[in-house]
């Protein structure tokens, strides 16, 4: 019931290039954030390699759809619970992915208007990459940032639920959440990353990778990735 306080992006991930989230947390809890995008398709990921897998899928899907006259338009509906993508024409839900099953979301480094996220099918344990594009790099960036905020809201809600548990509650009923300070990981060139470990029922850890370019505007040049393992 108490107001949820989120860490700013720069604290949740020290190298995040922005200081503020796009939305109030209540928007992701009680409502949803909807974004229009083109759905390029989904593909099976046989060898999961984090954001490298999303980049490979983006490249393949862009090539396979470049001559298509009509690409489906969908609405991505994002909440702290996960992501739905909805047919823009008839409003039917095409797919629904829980936040705990989303393993990676990133922009395509070759085309910043294209982005993707990876999900795990719990029944088969297969991973699939879902690829989308927008007409504006700023919109793509906001979608990825909103996904990052959804992870942060889910994390803070888990902490709040843990604090609300009475002492002596059964271990099976307690949401166990452990966080550690972001730890920088070395990357090639100017690329930096930070990891926030989050051990809850979903056993998730959050890694955001930001690749700022020095010679142009942030929204036109920054590759922004958020990874949930």
TrEMBL record:
Species whose genome carries this gene: Buceros rhinoceros silvestris
Keywords: ANK repeat, Repeat
Keyword Iron: no
Gene3D superfamilies: Pleckstrin-homology domain (PH domain)/Phosphotyrosine-binding domain (PTB)
Family matches, as CDD domains: PTB_Anks (cd01274)
InterPro entries in alphabetical order: ANKS1/Caskin (IPR033635), PH-like_dom_sf (IPR011993), PTB/PI_dom (IPR006020)
Pfam families given in the database record: PID
PANTHER family the UniProt entry points to: ANKYRIN REPEAT AND SAM DOMAIN-CONTAINING PROTEIN 1A, ANKYRIN REPEAT AND STERILE ALPHA MOTIF DOMAIN-CONTAINING PROTEIN 1
Any GO BP: ephrin receptor signaling pathway
The protein, known as: Ankyrin repeat and SAM domain-containing protein 1A
Top-rank taxon, per record: Eukaryota
């Amino acid at each position: 019931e108490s107001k949820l306080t989120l860490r700013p992006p720069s604290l949740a991930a020290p190298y995040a290039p922005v200081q503020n989230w796009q939305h109030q947390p209540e928007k992701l809890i009680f409502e949803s954030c909807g974004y229009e995008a083109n759905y390029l398709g989904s593909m099976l990921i046989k060898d999961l390699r984090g954001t490298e897998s999303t980049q490979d899928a983006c490249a393949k899907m862009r090539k396979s759809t470049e001559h298509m006259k009509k690409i489906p338009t969908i609405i991505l509906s994002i909440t702290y619970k996960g992501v739905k993508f909805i047919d823009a024409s008839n409003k039917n839900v095409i797919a629904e992915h829980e936040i705990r099953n989303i393993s990676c979301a990133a922009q395509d480094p070759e085309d910043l208007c294209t982005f993707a996220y990876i999900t795990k099918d719990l029944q088969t344990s297969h991973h699939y990459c879902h690829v989308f594009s927008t007409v504006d790099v700023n919109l793509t960036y906001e979608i990825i940032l909103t996904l990052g905020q959804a992870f942060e809201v889910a994390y803070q809600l888990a902490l709040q639920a843990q604090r609300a548990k009475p002492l002596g509650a059964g271990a099976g009923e307690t949401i166990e959440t452990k966080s550690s300070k972001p730890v920088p990981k070395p990357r090639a060139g100017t690329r930096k990353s930070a990891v926030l470990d989050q051990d809850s029922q979903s056993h998730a850890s959050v890694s955001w990778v930001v690749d700022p370019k020095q010679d142009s505007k942030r929204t036109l040049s920054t590759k922004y990735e958020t990874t949930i393992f």
